[in-house]
Amino acid sequence: MGVFNLCSNKILFFIFFLLATPLSQAETLKNMAPPDDFDVKGTARDLDGQLLYYEYHDYLDLVSGNLAGKNLHNVTYLNNDFSLLATKHIRYFQPVGLVSYKIKYARQSFSELVSVTAPSVEASNQKKNISVLVKKNSNSQSTQLIAKKGSIIDAGFDAFIRTYWLKLQRQTVTAQLLLMPAADWLSVNISKIANTKCQRNSTQLNVALCLQIKPDSFWLSVLAPDLMVGYNENKKLSTYLGPSNLVIDSESPMVFITYQHR
Questions:
Q1: Interval 173-178 mean pLDDT
Q2: Close Cβ partners of 139 (under 8 Å, ≥ 6 residues apart)
Q3: How many of the other CB atoms lie within 10 Å of CB of 106?
Q4: Handedness of CA 83, 86, 89, 90 (dihedral sign)
Q5: pLDDT at 182
Q6: Do residues 246 and 85 make contact, with C-beta atoms less than 8 angstroms apart?
Q7: How far is the C-alpha of 44 from the C-alpha of 30, rounded, in Å?
Q8: Over residues 169-175, mean pLDDT
Q9: pLDDT tens digits, residue range 199-210?
Q10: Maximum CA extent, the chain
Q11: Residues 213 and 229: beta-carbon distance below 8 Å
Q12: Structure pTM?
């Protein structure tokens, strides 16, 4: 029973690994026009095809298309009526997979901060740990973590996939995913599967590589929801199928997101 309870708790954290906090559509701000200046637009629908929200991504200080180094990335989430859901500000770090981010909800009472502190060049080998600080709300208790080998935080997943692109074509890659709101690491396996799984039977979607992400633990992998990402031949994110990173009307729905790149 204890093992089952532990697995159940881990599954809940896995479902909400990007973010989980209640956000009602009634609590969004006034309607706003879609941003004119954006690099990527995501359209999120539930598994029945109903439009839920949009996400507009703007990359700043991007170096040669490589999401690594101290590059900035802003995301604006809009409801299906273009009311503001949330904003997110992301900064990328080395090694790939690590990011700092802050997400602010339109409902002003909640925010979330994850910050990464890399060791200085002069630090001794014993002090070369990468510190990860997780903080929810400005006055809440913070959690201090040490990044593990192959660690991935939030949007750092995209940079991780690009880096291990060739390896993922041939074999399964294991990584450590930061679970939110648990503020803990989960070992996951990233495996290549049939492209049709990421297309959801739509041949019009450009998917050259479809990846499935599952917990490394057998019990967690059995219970975990589907989580799949599709990339086009240019190594750009094309589709996402899995739990939303936003909670709408007190739920984190399963979503299918398609991405358009400018």
A1: 92
A2: none
A3: 19
A4: negative
A5: 72
A6: yes
A7: 20
A8: 96
A9: 886 767 899 999
A10: 54
A11: yes
A12: 0.79
**Structural domain boundaries of the chain?**
2-261
Token readout for 131 is: 């510190």
pLDDT in tens, 53-106: 999 999 886 544 554 444 788 999 999 999 998 898 988 877 788 888 887 878
Spatial distance between the Cα atoms of 130 and 97, rounded to a whole number of angstroms: 12
Higher-pLDDT residue of 3, 163: 163
Pair of tokens at residue 94: 């080395």
Amino acid at 149: K
